[in-house]
What does this fold into?
Amino acid sequence: MKRSAAAPGRAVIYARVSSDRAGGRSVEEQVSECRTECERQAWPVADVLVDNDVSASRYATKARPEYARLQALLQPGDVLVMWEASRAQRDLKRYVELRDLCARRGVRWSYSGRLYDLSDGDDRFSTGLDALLAEKEAEQTRTRILRAHRANLADGKPHGRVPYGYRIIRDPETGKPVRREPHPGQAPLIAEAARRVLAGQSFASVVRWISERDDSLRWDAAKLRRLLINPTLAGFRVHTEVKDGVRGPRVIHRRGTWEPILSEDHHNDLVALFAARQSGPRGVPVKYLVSGIAECGVCGEKVWRGRGGTKKDGSRYEVYTCRPGRHAARRLDRVDEAVHTVVEEILISPTAVNALAETPPVDNAAATRLNELRRQLEAVETEIAEGRMPASTGGRVATRLEASIATAEVEATQIFVDPTVRRLATAPDPVAIWRDMPLLDQREFIKAVLHIRIERIGRGRWHDKRAGIVITPHRPQLEHPGTRGTTG
It folds into this structure.
């Protein structure tokens, strides 16, 4: 093993930090120590490469662009300088690739104050041992995190970050977490926001209301929506479970040990409400049954009320049409009549009514992805809490993961029966309830149950009243001849 300084040559410095154990060394500190070593050895620094917030284990999900540049940068006689071996990789396969590259090009490798010649058998053995230790450490870190996660899951204990609405109570002597409990200032705000949304208040007004009472967060509709459908607030832990002999993963809701802020019924109603409305409850006054709900069959845009032709009495009739180009249009009253007919045909069918009350299946593929993103976030938070990752670095990683989690939550959220749909599905006379419903509730039912498309039917005065009106239930169980429109 070669310990003496080599003849002066170019130095290429590489630094990296991620959720791997970095001993609290930031990339800036790593580069500084590497420069000191280069000065001591009289190696002129040609390049400094830095990969920040990137893992080097076999579980890494992101590429390391600067590390990849070594293939093009390293020249015969260069010295690759790092703070420690694990900055290059925590994966034995990647070590072999780097070892062979250095040996092939006559590049020496310096780390931890030692210089290695990768064409020398003894040095290959020593660096190989260091690579094995780095890989083992990565595996141990992952195992510890997963073990803690499984233990907390089995006991129903909370795991991961503390959501808005809760706080951690710690042991006054040891400082260790004892329990999670509702935050006395935040929990009542969440409960009241949920009550206001379920009461039908404008969602924008609810966002403004909570913003005025707590400015510690930058509230917006997306943030409040994610918070209100978080199962944690209803006292649930959610995870995916894979069993032998069972096809695909299952999403499991387990009752946690902490006090819920929202009841299970309120949680289910909120999830269903947001799922049906997609962008969240709006509370905007409406005048027409399917404006902004039905779609143009030509361009796919939503249709709205517009002015149509002239009736025999000289008055103008109204139509539903898309605003960008008026590609297709149908008389507003005939579309509304067709929709009412389809809804009532569904509500008088026992089979269809039973199907309305059933909870749709979960998208397990999306749930698996969501679970993996949450695991990654928990791993990053563990590294920050234990001082193995700088808070500034971890904060940036966590922000990106949270954005991905928010998207995955929309795709993986359990869709419960919409409150309006459940009301009709369980009513003794659903048709009578439907006819007496406010327009806003009728629209919510339509959005949750039907897809409506307005097709172009061509010129001419005489068409079937249903021509160009295509109404399709979201669930096949509701399909019957009355739901199929004609296109003329």
